[in-house]
């Protein structure tokens, strides 16, 4: 009789025994100071908190929420929640009070851990007065909540190796809400563990079985990309040294401390890193230097070191499409950057590029165990070992998203090449018709625009209009000077040239009438971006609707909002 696959807690208990004195996590605590936690220390605190949670009499599977930026105690709390027989609900640390309240209410959370936060005063009104809370050590000052350390001091660690059934729900992952109300995605221990094991195996194949495995955890652990590829893989691997970032202004120092061998990010941040390099050295000059034998390698190493990425053996990009030119640029400076494709609903375990299988514009090949087919309409249908059990309290959605034979309807459109590489060609729900009566897929055009060094983000729209248009957010280095007449003239000329290039390369019904330069930056705070920095398309379109008639009556190719 075959033995059951090991679940995440099984791996963790093995590390507790076999790697007791190995440092697992390094947490900055301010003023350049850090605290290291070995596997034994991590599990001692997790076991004490598990005892406390169990003493509260929470029902099996009770949802326990966390509202915190990444920190060592997030990991400890997750392990404690699992050992106590409960389910984790992580809330994005940048969410508004309304969304915090929605997630807590919808998940019927029994308790909330409050951790590192920048806007707790604004989020606190979203927490029901009746909900018990516990503050992590790095929680905002003046929180007035029972503290983690107080509980550690008076509580005995839970004994033994409390197990969970494969079908128990380990995590309830709420989506970032780019298309409306966040949905609660249920992942069982069996499927979350299978994805984590698969990711660990993929990473080890790339980095090397015995290579040092250091990561900096800074993308939100409330998002599936970080939760699976950083935390999940680390819990399985055991040899990982996980570092955390302290704050935005210490990020470079945090990177230099960690010297990660694996580094993952999202396209918008990869673009920001590049623009930071260009702010110090113009792109044309850097390109000339990179072409010079010997000197080019020295310059590339200096750029990687300046980014804090000189030790990286593998870099990954996910969560949204990344312009192929941006990947090519990072490879030019010697950073092995590969794009992947996954979603909350499959534990971010579906497709990834690697040294053997990669091509500009493609997101890679299927990871082991992943099945894919394309519907007649070109929609990507996936079966993954990390596939969701379903949506919490939404059997109506379950009926919509699963085919009769169990494939998940991703909502993404794609095509495959003969080597099995997948290309994303747009979102089915993002396709729109102009007055010409043909569908326009915005994503490929946006990728072309976003590849320009002057641009940080763009949005292509034009529902029912004579032609499509694009809104453009200038790069962070240009935005402070966007009112200067000379700069405006330069940007207008460059964007006009970009518009002509794009229109010459697309079908006539996809051509853009204009590029509109956005005055107010899109951000999480003003509701234009999700917590994972995806564009809230419908929200932005609604915001600018009163301006459309004026824009379309203007004869200029580049407008300034």
UniProtKB/TrEMBL annotation:
The keyword Flavoprotein does not apply. PROSITE patterns: AMP_BINDING (PS00455). GO terms for molecular function: ATP binding; long-chain fatty acid-CoA ligase activity. The keyword Nucleotide-binding applies. Residues 19-392 form the AMP-dependent synthetase/ligase domain. It comes from the Bacteria. This is AMP-binding protein.
